[in-house]
Amino acid sequence: MAVIAALVALSLAAPAVAQASAVSNQGLIRTGATDVLPGQSVGDIIVVGHDLTIGGTADHVLVVNGNVDLLPSARVDTVIDLGGEVRTLPGATVHKLLHATLGNPFWSGAIVAGLGALLMWMGMLAAGIVLTAILTVIAAALRESIEVPLAELEKSARRAGLSGVFVTLAVLALSGLLAATLVGIPVAVVCLALYAVGAIVGLSVVSVWLGRMIAGRDRVRDVWKAALAGVSFIVAFSSIPIIGQILFLVLWLAGVGVTAEWLWRWRHRRKASGART
Q: Which residues form the DUF8173 domain (predicted)?
């Protein structure tokens, strides 16, 4: 289902037929029949499940479960076709050609599924690297004040999670009401953006908490090291189907609750200090 959703998103994000263009070095990703017209110059082309006709110039071409037709005016550096046929008309120029024909529909579908799984894995890997870097940097930046919300989380992680559930439901309900009107849509977007920022900050606190639990407080005294250990645990277990997503959701809600309680206590302390003055 995830592969199908990714392919549908790609098909909606780009038209099925490449229009004539003088722009060079422009990559194309298509899930429909594609034509590179004479005079058009593109970079890399990936077509999944459909045919590709080239009459212009291209760098690297990958077609999965589809045919490749090279017109006499075609100039291509590399053509890789998996599960289809390559028809080259006289006059076409191809420097490198890799062709694997699999007449069995099972193997053709396996190629498509394997390519989709590879793309998903690469996307998850990139997302995990970005998340690790962001949470570690945030924890290091808040090292002077992170002990306050961390102490509250250590007292009761369950309370933080329940607070995160209530805050999430409230933000979703408020955003839904605001989005019902044209004027309220920008406000709803701002509310969701602030919610996401607060959740990421709270998730950095949760990462430090997990890192100290896993490696031990004495072994990871530095905040950034504890955060790195904790977020590595989160990324590793989040890749497990279903269970990993549930775990990430629970930790996300705990991060939302930590940030909400942190802001609430900061507001009360500031209000109390203002009353004393």
A: 116-267
